[in-house]
Amino acid sequence: xxxxxxxxxxxxxxxxxxxxxxxxxxxxxxxxxxxxxxxxxxxxxxxxxxxxxxxxxxxxxxxxxxxxxxxxxxxxxxxxxxxxxxxxxxxxxxxxxxxxxxxxxxxxxxxxxxxxxxxxxxxxxxxxxxxxxxxxxxxxxxxxxxxxxxxxxxxxxxxxxxxxxxxxxxx
Length: 171
Known about the structure:
Elements: H1 4-21, H2 36-40, H3 48-66, H4 71-90, H5 104-107, H6 109-132, H7 138-170
């Protein structure tokens, strides 16, 4: 059965990524990837197969609209593979049930920032490594990875603050 919350989340973040963030040129070194929120927020208890399918679908959708098949999907699949290991190291199992979405209000600020920044950094590093790795260009690869990670993390954090505030007002 389809969970319509995931479908709305998927469509919303994909549309924002494709029609807004991919069209705004920040610089040649900064590329924000808000769509990673889809992968980052999937509940801890979801199966690995579910996570891999969502990651592949998310990455392929972005790849199709960017005309670069395989780049985003590869990066998304790799971070989804390591996601549960990073989450188990960072999360306190007493505070996070297997059905809770991985959100700022569920993990806490520090754990959420470490969790998100780690996965965003690896996603960006893998993606930029595949796109434009050259031995003489390692410094640019690292700078682009770090700047894109910071901007993506800020966007996701602001999004999480909005989500937390909205959720808090409804209770």
